[in-house]
Amino acid sequence: MRTEKDSMGELQVPADALYTAQTQRAINNFPVSDTRMPESYIRALVALKKAAAIANQKLEQIPAETGEAITKAADRLLSEDDLMQHFPVDVFQTGSGTSTNMNANEVLATLASRETSEPVSPNDHINYGQSSNDVIPSVIHISAALKIKNALLPALNCLAASIRSKAEEVDGFIKTGRTHLMDAMPIRMSQGLGAWATQTEENIARLEQSLPALEALALGGTAVGTGINAHPDFSALVCDVLNAETGLNFRPAEDYFSRIASQDTAVAVSGILKTQAVTMMKIANDLRWMNSGPLAGLGEIELEALQPGSSIMPGKVNPVIPEAAAMVSAQVMGNDVAINVAGQSGNFELNVMLPLVAHNLLQSIGLIANVSRLLADKAIASFVVKEEKLQEALAKNPVLVTALNPVIGYLKAAEIAKQAYREGRPIIDVADEQTDLGRTELERLLNPEKLTHGGL
Asked: Which residue stretches of the chain have pLDDT < 50?
């Protein structure tokens, strides 16, 4: 151990730690969950500190040697695979995220001081022109925007493309449609899959539309939104550096007060993630129902066999990928509820649940991105249609009689449907007995493929 001190006094810190007193106080104060801030968040935080050093150096707010040392230290951190060993602070900490901000400031100051003739201060140099109150909300936006662009949108596009491709492959298969889990009019299997694809594509569009709001940063507002102690050009220069590094379009927010006091943008983005979770839950449940059986269920498709399904029942295979997707969906919905509550905690000039917002938002983005690719590659692309089961159900579907409504009327059609169901006979046989339409005309009217095109 070694002795470090801050404005509150001295305390012991591990001898080999790059952080110093304030980080150690947070470690001591918050042994809550053993869950750290996400690595994607920490990397975005270090990238912001690097950009801030470059901006402050250009604006002559810190010495050139100091700025160069901070930049070098940040590059070193960002190149480390075990970066997170230097960032041990719990997610459940001070609501402003000050502990995480100071953790980054201290680590960078330690590394930068080794490169300079004069010590680098975590507050006076690394944090110059900044406050936890504008840094932490800015990094929520930066990390979320990067993860949406680089991980989530590619994964969702992969999922949508996989569904569209499978829809084309199975277009020739006609199945019994279902409403209320009960037999309904027939559909082409491609029509059901097309609905999944459209849902996913619409969520992609919503996410793309959310990026400009995420690109507006609180940085420059400092403690309460007034911009105290920050150079007027500081925020714009930081954004220029970040944009050159990321290819995104970060910019100073038009109203710093709103970005520091609230987390409305994060709440809105979480709502889109929740919507995609609802979409995935629907897809996962449809796949599980269609795959159910193989003998006592619907058995319309057979999902790829990936692992034994039971420790006691030999030969059992379960729909493990849809189940994983359903659990991800549940977690994302829960994360959204917590983010909604956190979003309400903007007390006057500062939201005080920022670490929770960061953790949950990034976790949701990562979970959806990862499971979307699994769903695309190991469930949708690889399932096999069981045509004999489709035809068996379709032939006995009494709801096909709906097509006769315009010809024989609803009441007569209902009578035929009930008889067919009661006797377990194909609808066409009963209709042939109960009407004078003739077999040929009934075959034309009750052709399942024709019925999937709608119209009269």
From this structure: none
Q: Which of 203, 206, 208, 215 is nearest to 246 (CA)?
A: 215
From the list 310, 359, 382, 453, the catalytic residue is: 310
Angle at 317 (CA atoms; ends 315, 323), nearest 5 degrees: 160
For residue range 88-112, what is the model confidence (pLDDT) as tens digits? Answer: 999 999 999 999 999 999 999 999 9
Q: How far apart are CA 224 and CA 442, in angstroms?
A: 75
Do 167 and 194 contact (CB within 8 A), yes or no?
yes
pLDDT of residue 370: 98
- Peptide bond before 294: cis, by omega within 30 degrees of 0? yes
Kindly write down the DSSP assignment for every residue of 265-305, as one continuous string: HHHHHHHHHHHHHHHHHHHHHHHHHHH--SSSS--SEEPPP
Distance CA 416, CA 399 (A): 10
Q: What is the pLDDT of residue 196?
A: 98
Q: Take residue 101 and report the two structure tokens written for it.
A: 């901000």
Residues 234, 237, 240: CA angle, nearest 5 degrees: 150
Does the annotation mark 180 as catalytic?
yes
Specify whether 165 is catalytic: no
pLDDT for 5-16, tens place per residue?
A: 999 999 999 999
pLDDT at 363: 98
3-state helix, strand, coil in the chain (%, to 5): 60, 10, 30
What pLDDT sits at residue 156?
A: 98
Catalytic residue among 7, 79, 117, 180: 180
- Residue 195, C-beta contacts closer than 8 angstroms, at least 6 positions apart: none
